[in-house]
């Protein structure tokens, strides 16, 4: 009987060790995946040989730079946190929230310094909302109201 229990325990320990190892490997791969990481325009500009490589770059759409053709944006600029800018060429459908000030992550091939030919544009939703000036706006606080119950009618 002890041999059967030891065998079951051994199998359970082996299964748990293999499962833990597999989960660990998947977590490490996901953390290092380029699919979940994007670079800023400044990081992109620092690259020596960008032509032909695939990139993901994130930044805010710069107001006044959206060029449209047939009602669709074909070129726009994005800016990083410190004002560094780059031009995005794109021929496709943009998300509904696309517009000046929207934070976008674009994926595509580099086409020279500070230019990217994008194959996709994704809006990155943020936890904080910003006014047109770029400064954080606190959420409005609920206001107290003096609501009186309606008189009972018979």
Describe the structure.
It is a single chain. The protein is an alpha+beta fold. It has 2 domains: 1-32; 36-123, OB fold (Dihydrolipoamide Acetyltransferase, E2P). 23% of the residues lie in helices and 27% in strands. The chain is built from 2 helices and 6 strands, in the order H-H-E-E-E-E-E-E. It has helices at 2-31, 41-45; strands at 54-61, 67-69, 72-79, 85-90, 103-110, 115-123. Strands 1-3-4-6-5 form a 5-stranded mixed barrel. Strand 3 (72-79) and strand 4 (85-90) form a beta hairpin. The longest helix is centred in the first third of the chain and has 30 residues, at 2-31. The chain starts with a helix and ends in a 31-residue tail after the last strand.
Short structural description:
The protein is an alpha+beta fold.
Task: Provide the spatial order of strands within the biggest beta sheet.
Answer: 1-3-4-6-5
CATH topology of the largest domain: OB fold (Dihydrolipoamide Acetyltransferase, E2P)
Overall pLDDT confidence: 79
* Mass-distribution shape: flat
In DSSP terms (H or I, runs of 4 or more residues), the helix count works out at 2
